[in-house]
Amino acid sequence: MNFFKHISLLLFTVILFTGCDSSLDGELNKNQLPTTNLTVERINRGDDFRLSSQIEISWWGNDPDGYIVGYEYAINDTSEGNWTFTEKSDSLFILPITEGQSEDEVLFKVRSVDNDGAKDPVGASLVYPIVNTKPEVQINRNESPPDTLFSISSFGWEIEDKDGLGNIDRTEIALNDTLNGWVSIPLPEEDETQLFVSLAVDNTQPGIQTAQVFQGRAYNRAVDKDGNPVEVPGMEVGARNIFYVRVVDAAGAVSNVDTLSWFVKQQQSDVLFINDDGGINSLPNQQAHLNLLAELGIHPDVWMINGGEVEQQKIALSEAFPAVIDPTLKKTLAKWDHIYWISDNIDRNITYALDITSDFFNNGGSMFVNIPMKGISQEDEIFNFLPVDSIGVLEGIQTNFLVNGNVDVNPVDVSTDVVLKTESRSTGVFPLKPISGATLLYETDFKATTIIGVNQDYQGFEGVGIENPEGDLAYFGMDLVNLNGNNNLAELIEFVCRQRLGF
């Protein structure tokens, strides 16, 4: 019975509504505008307690009939067209200080935007009392030239600004004279605090030159905002120079000026003579080699890198070289066509030759190396550079290698009849075996000393001089100064350096 009552009531309701006007009367509610609030509503600070221009600001919005889709903010100028949209409710800002002022009052205003695109007509605003801090700069001595250098000089420096790196407007350098203007160096694209540039000049002529600027370890030509190459005037070849660097921030505040002094040496030859002889006879040995080259009309530039001592197994790279290998040292060595390298110890700077001379050889350079070979591990990295497969091995009661005085050092299957002769006995000098494809230039009669005091004839390979398969490197494993018994070393240099290496 109740079931039928419910059916009747339902039918009555349907009939009632279908028989009446179902339209809705009244006005649609208007979109209510959003509101905005800053997390910090007021700042009470005296002139002695102003804020840094780098400030984190946060805010929030409310929409009574929808939701907030984002915010717009403006700094100082709140006219339309100067607002920036963001979906964030906080951000780190570097508030601008009027150029030339150390203090300023900066207006920050933010307004909410709701899902209908409506904006808070009032917004939230606050005036920030800020003070500008001068930036700072410091040259990195580990990325700067040694006391004396040739054509390429590199400098690294670090910048700091307590107001944030975004407050840095530019960094500037000058050479020798800051009165004639500073040269702006492009800042890194990312927020990096360290910069590195190389200054390259044509140092084949003495006098004042304009340096070309290369940026970064990739050695890319620096260009200004208009795409023009950056150049720095005033570098003097053949004289001591002073490098100046400073930083300027967006308010025009200028940092301290850091400086470094170094000598730019003139390049006068296409041959570089490297003296890495750390012994007491270093200078007499150097002069003996230079005299041999002079007989052939070769007057090389000289680079002394013979400071320091071999500690443990290998010496540290010479401080006479620039500390930055790539690009500075590599690019500098590549300025010469030929290198003549002497040393008294295979564990000195020749250890690093494979790396530091890569650009030199890639440019078609050739090299002569004269360093006595001693007993070193077959795994030593020097074997990746010199054309030596292996060195002699002592056996049984043998204690050392020996080459007596007045012994011939003979050419081997090469087009020369220049026979050398030892002037005195040499001990501890190891015989050489060439790598595959290399040319054995010279060999001699090696002996082996023994624990019983009797010298034995050494029956293994007896190489002294080898040329690499590429024909751009010749190595002699005995001191040439001791091989002038026939007074014909100049003829050897003529044969090896002139004829075979193209000096």
Q: How would you describe this structure to a colleague?
A:
The chain is mainly β. The chain has three domains: 35-131, Immunoglobulins (Immunoglobulin-like), CATH 2.60.40; 136-264, Immunoglobulin-like, CATH 2.60.40.10; 271-500, Class I glutamine amidotransferase (GATase) domain (Rossmann fold). The chain is 12% helix and 37% strand. The protein is built from six helices and 34 strands. The chain has helices at residues 2-18, 282-295, 325-333, 353-356, 358-362, 489-500, and strands spanning 35-38, 51-52, 54-62, 68-75, 84-86, 90-94, 103-114, 124-131, 136-140, 148-149, 152-160, 168-175, 183-185, 194-200, 207-215, 220-221, 231-237, 239-249, 258-264, 271-276, 301-304, 338-343, 366-370, 388-391, 398-403, 408-411, 420-421, 426-427, 432-434, 439-444, 447-450, 456-457, 463-467, 473-476. A nine-stranded mixed β-sheet has the order 21-20-22-23-34-33-30-26-27, covered by helices on one side. Strands 9, 11, 14, 15, 16 and 17 form a six-stranded antiparallel β-sheet that branches. The radius of gyration is 39 Å and the shape is elongated. The protein starts with a helix and ends with a helix. The model is unreliable at 1-20 (pLDDT under 50).
SSE layout and pairing:
Elements: H1 2-18, E1 35-38, E2 51-52, E3 54-62, E4 68-75, E5 84-86, E6 90-94, E7 103-114, E8 124-131, E9 136-140, E10 148-149, E11 152-160, E12 168-175, E13 183-185, E14 194-200, E15 207-215, E16 220-221, E17 231-237, E18 239-249, E19 258-264, E20 271-276, H2 282-295, E21 301-304, H3 325-333, E22 338-343, H4 353-356, H5 358-362, E23 366-370, E24 388-391, E25 398-403, E26 408-411, E27 420-421, E28 426-427, E29 432-434, E30 439-444, E31 447-450, E32 456-457, E33 463-467, E34 473-476, H6 489-500
Parallel strand pairs: 2-8, 10-19, 20-21, 20-22, 22-23, 23-34
Antiparallel strand pairs: 1-3, 3-6, 4-5, 4-7, 7-8, 9-11, 11-14, 12-13, 12-18, 14-15, 15-16, 15-17, 18-19, 24-29, 25-28, 25-31, 26-27, 26-30, 30-33, 31-32, 33-34
